[in-house]
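name: query_chain
kind: protein
chains: 1
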Amino acid sequence: MIKGNIHSIETMGLVDGPGIRVVVFFQGCALRCTFCHNPDTWATSGGESITPVELVNKIERYKTYFKNSGGGVTFSGGEPLLQPDFLIEVLKLCRERGIHTTIDTAGVGAGRYQEILKYVDLILFDVKHYNPKEYSEITGREVKESLKFLEIAQEMNIKMWIRHVVMPGVTDTVEDMQNLADFIKELKNVEKIELLPYHLLGTNKYEILNIKYKLEGMPAMDKAKAKELEKLLIELVKK
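structure:
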């Protein structure tokens, strides 16, 4: 019997896709992003071991709430693509039960992307960086797997929201926005673009896990500036 490892479940998510959503955080991630605020999701082991039916039954309990708001379920993490067999079965059950599905992903998983995306209504795609060298410095991995996933998503014409963490002094210039806009312009079906301001929430987890925090001393991104940059980015993409 297929089982998955789930870190946690949020039942009234308002920022991870359209409407009110159940957000399921998968355990395990192949990236080690410098700005990550959930290092407790990195390890593939741990969390709650659960079957696809058990998980979808939990999700369906809240169907009244998210159905009326145009919501559904968002699979986040960690990285949901790292548990493809489990994810596919969960997505199939959601499709059978009329539940809108979104995956929040960086596109670095364990393959079977075409089969996964057959049952996905929306992708929240995390652009770590538009430049391959900077991408590697931020994530600890090469960008090619992420681009491979993006290519398949484009071929399958899946709707997409773009997300990007903006860091003060690192990715917060007009030039950064222009380069990011050029990257986004190459993608189809982008319905929404969001800049997420770098924050310090979760940094205490690194101490607890005895992991060195690589951005020690970096201040939180000014939210007002991040919003201005987001407006600029959207305008540049439209040009």
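note: The chain has one domain: 2-236.
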